[in-house]
Automatic annotation (TrEMBL), chains A, D:
InterPro entries membership: DhaK_L_YcgS, DhaL_dom, DhaL_dom_sf, Dihydroxyacetone_Kinase
PROSITE patterns given in the database record: DHAL (PS51480)
CC terms in the record's Gene Ontology section: cytosol
DhaL domain ranges (all copies): 15-214
Signal sequence region: none
Key words of the record: Kinase, Transferase
Record keyword Chaperone present: no
SUPFAM superfamilies: DhaL-like
Name of this protein: Dihydroxyacetone kinase DhaL subunit
GO MF annotations, alphabetized: glycerone kinase activity
UniProt keyword Acetylation present: no
One Gene Ontology biological process: glycerol catabolic process
TrEMBL record, chains B, C:
Gene3D superfamilies: Dihydroxyacetone kinase, domain 1, Dihydroxyacetone kinase, domain 2
Gene Ontology MF term list: glycerone kinase activity
Biological process terms in GO annotation: glycerol catabolic process
Keywords annotated in UniProt: Kinase, Transferase
Record's keyword annotation contains Lipid metabolism: no
PANTHER family tied to this protein: TRIOKINASE/FMN CYCLASE (PTHR28629), TRIOKINASE_FMN CYCLASE (PTHR28629:SF4)
Gene Ontology, cellular component aspect: cytosol
Protein known as: Dihydroxyacetone kinase DhaK subunit
Residue ranges constituting the DhaK domain according to the UniProt record: 7-326
Keyword Kinase assigned: yes
Length: 219, 328, 328, 219
């Protein structure tokens, strides 16, 4: 159920998704050069291309997605990302959404439910990637956001606070990767040379989460 | 970016079409999901499947055929393939004796193959190739899989062809991996079509030492020096890792990254063979050429595999693929 | 200049040493004068000898062995070999049935082989390869010999192995030459070690159309365009030269100049095969890879050979060289 | 016999050759960059390397050469160039000296004899290369020098005139290649694009002939 204090009047169902996907696509394309440079610096340079490919595939799901409930929509998104992106990020984001789809069956779409769903997604990335916070990956963006959601859910914060906290946690988490040594992903091969560069996956996760927060705040 | 392509979007598909057309006697190409599979497979043989990002050609598509792989799943350039490719390929080529996945150790490859394996409902095993000794053995993600992969595929491929069962193939694969060490040096970066520019900058008097095969930087930047000195660094790391006994037989593989002329690769072979022979190793087989490439990167890697009689016999067994062929 | 070498002076010798070491089962390398000759030659077989400047590897050294050449004489990089090399090689491999020289049509190669032939006191013939259709048929020096040379060597090599006599080999060689047309396009120049810099400059949006294999400029500069459009130009020139009949069987060879990834060569194959098939030609054999190279030049050539049953049978016959191997 | 009006007092035998070869070597090395650029522009760039390799081999012949008579010395020089230079120029210069060696048997070393010997060398290049004047090759230097020698021999010109005419003919001949279309050698493949460039072999021939003239004038 989507009609509640947090998710807002207009976010009644998965019709929310197509415009959101379009907004994310626009934001990633806007930052394509920068993201590409990040993955070139300490990875192999393909992260943004992989993500754009995945988002393009999602954008073609429009009609299909809006006919699905949240659980099925997340599943569909996960399977689509998994079979179009490739790379480390494809398997991870794919797993995340499939797990979110599974969890969404058990949850209402309120702050607590969304928090639980998102946490299930993040946990599946940790499990699939055998990684945790502090390893210079997308998890350095994703986990702080999970923690902020969890604490806001506990405190039953109002929507503006929740969204502001998501953006702050994502941005701070993303930036924290800059000075880290990498112990997962391709950047780990570079040892000390990886320091001083932001992780590409952390940056795209942050961009995506900020777009989601902005879209939610408009609802 | 100067490439013989029509568009960044179509390069992979068109290249695979050309590959399929040129080798239609031995392989077929399935579109969506993309995989190359062997024609005329033997009955009741363990199915060998590998894959990885494109841009390493002839690896892996060029190694599909009698005596080697049953299927190869090419991802986008330098991007691991997606699980549906491996799953569909497995379902297409499996014929009762199970599936062996041969996977280079990269997060993306490992995870995507893992997901496919989880979905596959027939007996299966995975051999993880991690032959790159430019990283310490206890590296946080494990070592990368590089040019040694071909040797694993050849030897296990011959065993499977000879009727070895899944457990035996898996064990043999692990043995080859443990007997193999590689390390590479890059003189230039390479240009991924979708990026349109070299992945990294490097000055005219520098090399990247200890590189993987995705056009990424290596372990460290070093001054460009003589081939002999570069070979020393690579061969020493390999020697210290494998610690071969005197009189040990070995296969020496010099792998070009794509833009280095054969003339230089043979010069490197000479230098490396001398290095190992001075240490009492007997080089009994050689392979020199562009096999595990990084598009148009200049540079090469050295791979040494310590060989026992069984491995030698499987190495010599007939093979008929686009890139490796003998005895047939 | 970034190369895996020790010194400009020693690169050729060290590379040949490595080649000899890597393939000691099939060839041996004679120093001063330099030539590579086949081990285990058949008795009373016409001796096939080719040669030319180094820098085209695997041509010609990589094509010495059972079913192909008996000896190859490598000159300095892009410099024709000297007559003493061909003379000594001929004396070493000739065994009663005479010598067939296979010479690419370049002033230097032609004259140096000619001098050797004049000094040789056994029956001998020369097949002059001039397959490059980027020049008009009546060009003042004749057309150059390029990637079609390998096809001549393979087909005549198989005939010699099967016992054909000198006159028959010469005739067959001429027939293959007349059935073969090639043309190439370069995306970059290449760097001759002794020069230390690229032979010519070329901007990022230009190609050299109609190049030879010595890093020299081509017939004209053109804008870099799609692979399909470049293939059109090359394939059309070939088609207009050979004027093949409908249903004519042919071998299509895409030859990389050294630095162009296999991914692109297969894409070119796809495009070229489509071109010729649309004109009713049946592509029955393919060869895709770096065979007649110009060091680290990027680009490729297309070669089409119209095949009859005899040529097909010789093409398919067993061959065991460093670069080309099947059936053995 | 070398003691005559033209060849001078000190040029009595082949001891003249080692210092001459050294002087030629120095001159070619001095102009290496320029010659290399000429062959790169309309050829394959190796001409100067080939020539230097040949000259190095000649410079190692010192002791051997001075023990030989002119005919044998020319033969030896021809065989050495032929087996060390390679390329078009190796076979041509090799043939030239071998033919000069043959002709030297029949001639005295006076102006008429030298002219006949030189002409035999040039004829052998024409025959081997199936080329003549005006094809943008070394012959455009060599043939005018032959003509100047022949006319000076007829007129029995004095040494200074002979030498000045050699240098003038060589230099003019070399320069004449600049605007030619090439019909022999690699430059022929370039068609109109070969125009505007001097032929590398014409340039080295001219440099060599000028050094010879200078050395002779000092004797
Ligand atoms: N084990 C892992 N756990 C979590 N995230 C990871 C892991 N490995 C890689 N990543 C993330 O994936 C991103 C790279 O994705 P991408 O470039 O698409 O794949 P690849 O590394 O295979 O080229 C990295 O920037 C990092 O954020
Ligand atoms: N047929 C010929 N006749 C006379 N001179 C020639 C002929 N072909 C080439 N040359 C000369 O040889 C020179 C090139 O020599 P070189 O670069 O050593 O050999 P290559 O052309 O084989 O690389 C040309 O500049 C030209 O002067
Ligand atoms: Mg990446
Ligand atoms: Mg990648
Ligand atoms: Mg040359
Ligand atoms: Mg030249």
């Amino acid at each position: 159920m989507l009609c509640n204090k947090f998710t807002g009047q207009n976010m009644t169902d998965t019709t929310f998704l197509p415009p959101l996907i379009a907004a994310i696509q626009a934001e990633i394309l806007n930052n394509e050069e920068e993201i590409s440079a990040l993955d070139r610096a300490i990875g192999d340079g393909d992260h943004v291309t992989n993500l754009i490919r995945g988002l393009e595939a999602l954008s073609k799901l429009n009609d299909e997605l809006v006919q699905l409930d949240w659980s099925a929509a997340f599943m569909k998104i996960g399977m689509t990302l998994m079979s179009t992106m490739g790379g480390a990020s494809g398997s991870l984001l794919g797993s995340m959404f499939v797990s979110m789809g599974k969890e969404a069956k058990e949850q209402d779409i309120d702050l607590a439910g969304i928090t639980a769903i998102y946490a299930a997604g993040v946990e599946s990335i940790k499990a699939r990637g055998k990684a945790d916070i502090g390893e210079k990956t997308m998890l350095d963006t994703l986990i702080p956001v999970m923690q902020s959601l969890q604490s806001d859910a506990e405190q039953n914060s109002d929507k503006a606070t929740v969204l502001a906290n998501i953006k702050a946690a994502a941005t701070q988490g993303m930036q924290s990767t800059k000075d880290m040594l990498a112990t997962k992903g391709r950047a780990s091969f570079l040892g000390e040379r990886a320091r001083g560069h932001i992780d590409a996956g952390a940056r795209t996760s942050q961009l995506i989460l900020c777009v989601i927060a902005d879209q939610l705040s408009e609802n | 970016m100067k490439k013989l392509i029509n568009s960044v979007e179509s390069v992979l598909e068109e290249s695979l079409n050309g590959f399929a057309r040129a080798h239609s006697n031995i392989i077929q190409f399935n579109h969506q999901p993309n995989y190359v599979s062997r024609k005329n497979k033997s009955e009741n043989k363990v199915a060998l499947i590998s894959g990885g990002g494109a841009g390493h050609e002839p690896l892996h598509t060029g190694l599909v055929g009698k005596g080697m792989l049953d299927a190869a799943c090419p991802g986008q350039v330098f991007t691991s393939p997606t699980p549906d490719q491996m799953l569909m390929a497995a379902q297409a080529v499996e014929n009762g004796a199970g599936v062996l996945f041969i996977v280079k150790n990269y997060a993306g490859d490992v995870m995507n193959f893992e997901i496919a394996a989880e979905m596959l409902d027939c007996p299966h095993e995975t051999v993880l190739v991690n032959d790159d000794v430019s990283l310490p053995k206890d590296h946080s993600t494990g070592r990368r899989g590089v040019a040694g992969t071909l040797i694993v595929e050849k030897i296990v491929g011959a065993a499977a062809e000879a009727g070895a069962d899944l457990a035996t193939c898996k064990q043999l694969g692990d043995k080859v991996v443990n007997s193999t060490a590689s390390m590479g040096v890059a003189l230039t970066s390479c240009t991924v079509p979708a990026l349109g520019q070299p992945t990294f900058d490097i000055s005219d008097n520098e090399v990247e030492m200890g590189v993987g095969i995705h056009g990424e930087r290596g372990r460290e930047v070093m001054s460009l020096t003589t081939a002999d000195e570069l070979v020393q660094i690579l061969a020493k790391a390999i020697d210290e890792d494998l610690k071969p006994a005197k009189e040990q037989c070995a296969l020496l593989h010099i792998n070009g990254f794509g833009a280095t002329p054969l003339m230089e690769l043979y010069l490197v072979y000479d230098s490396a063979a001398q290095f190992f022979e001075e240490r009492g190793i007997k080089i009994v087989r050689s392979l020199v050429g562009n096999y595990t490439t990084s598009l148009d990167m200049a540079g090469c890697s050295i791979t040494l595999t310590l060989m026992d009689d069984e491995m030698l016999q499987y190495w010599d067994a007939p093979v008929h693929t686009a890139a490796l062929r003998w005895g047939i």
